[in-house]
User: Fold this.
Amino acid sequence: MSKSDHKTALITGASRGIGRATAEAFASAGFALILTCHSSMKELETLAAHLHSQYGVPCLTVQADVGDASDVTRLFHDIDELDVLINNAGIAHIGLLTDMSPEQWRRVMAVNLDACFYTCRAAIPLMLKKHSGRIINVSSVWGAQGASMEVAYSASKGGVNAFTKALAKELAPSNIQVNAIACGVIDTAMNSLLSQSDLEELRSEIPADRLGAPEEAAQLILQIAQAPGYMTGQIITLDGGWY
Ligand code: NAD
Assistant:
């Protein structure tokens, strides 16, 4: 796939939530898009058709489980150009650590952390060809703070933070910047795992007195993609003053 008139951004988990809002933000900025989802292909195709007609940008959709190395290899098979990689896909798991099975633990790690390895391993050679590129990982405040009942999720996002900082150092000489955003509570389907009273309690702890909007996360991701090239290795918090 070659799209000479546009820079190209690949966004994982773009069928809803932060990924969907990010797709809209990048389309409005004129990026050609490669959008992926795990299982909501119909929603993703509807989104792609909307973005193409609204902003006139090429928009490719691919179904892929980012936690599966061979699926990610297949995803990159037809991609020959990439400027921005956004590792957004993620899953939460709420429960006591002692109630968690090894399979549940592995799944959280695979989708949230291993995926960053799989996608970056495939994207970096494309960026090296251009001597330019941006990798933006979507992390969480729990990656630094840790959350009770979310040990695996917190560990996976802590891994994403360390991954981001280490890879930024490895790729800085090649003019490829690697940064992450650490979200607080953003109003998406991910939080449907929480009860209304849990959400209310979280909101009351947040100085901004509200949850973040997915569009705010999307705006920050786009700004990082357009930030000066000297900014790399940063974990930028978006949490309404919470931490
Ligand atoms: P969401 O559940 O609405 O969206 C998650 C997206 O990831 C969906 O499109 C889903 O299809 C995709 N996905 C899940 N498993 C996948 C897989 N195996 N392969 C490919 N895609 C897969 O949640 P969201 O809030 O939009 O989450 C986006 C990112 O933001 C996640 O990495 C999440 O950890 C992070 N985050 C969210 C919050 C929040 O409060 N919503 C807070 C901190 C961090």
Notes: The helical segments are 17-28, 41-55, 69-76, 102-130, 142-145, 151-171, 196-205, 214-225. The mean pLDDT is 97. The CA atoms of residues 31 and 56 lie 10 Å apart.
